[in-house]
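Attaching the record inline, Q. Sequence:
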Amino acid sequence: MASLVKFCKIPNKLLPKNGVYMYNIVRNNMIRDFKPGPYPRTEEEKAKAAEKYGLSREDYKPIPDDDGWGLGDYPDLPRVGAESKDNFYPWDYPNLKRNFNEPLHIEFNIISEDRWNPTANLRYPMYVYWLTFLGIIGGFATLYCIFDNYKVVQPRMPKQYPKDGMPHYTFEPLH
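Structure, as predicted:
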């Protein structure tokens, strides 16, 4: 981030007002209101964080901060993939299957509709998928090892020239 700000100081002389526009675009790329705050310790802080994310106090539970590397006051939302949500519900944003002002899950980029669905019911048990995968890869590896010594090329004879041992072309002019 600091390198981008230093880079943006180059055109300061070219922009009006000492490059305020470029500096603000790079420096303030995220609205501070949407950044998670510190981990709430008291009930008042939890109530403020619940109000900030549009949740009721009963529904709000922050992500646990066991090791000190937590995500602040961000709510611990249930992991439900977009593919598992109702298609016929009148969503405000139907492409994302979410409503206005609804907080996003911390792993929203992983559980969107075109990616992983943690709540999906598999058609077969997982060991069937693994056995199928390993069987196909193992079968191709076995075929490769068996037929690696057999060459599959078309036989060709050496190229024929008009006179062996003599050049059949010259670059000197004819006259």
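The CA atoms of residues 159 and 168 lie 13 Å apart. The mean pLDDT is 81.

More tomorrow.
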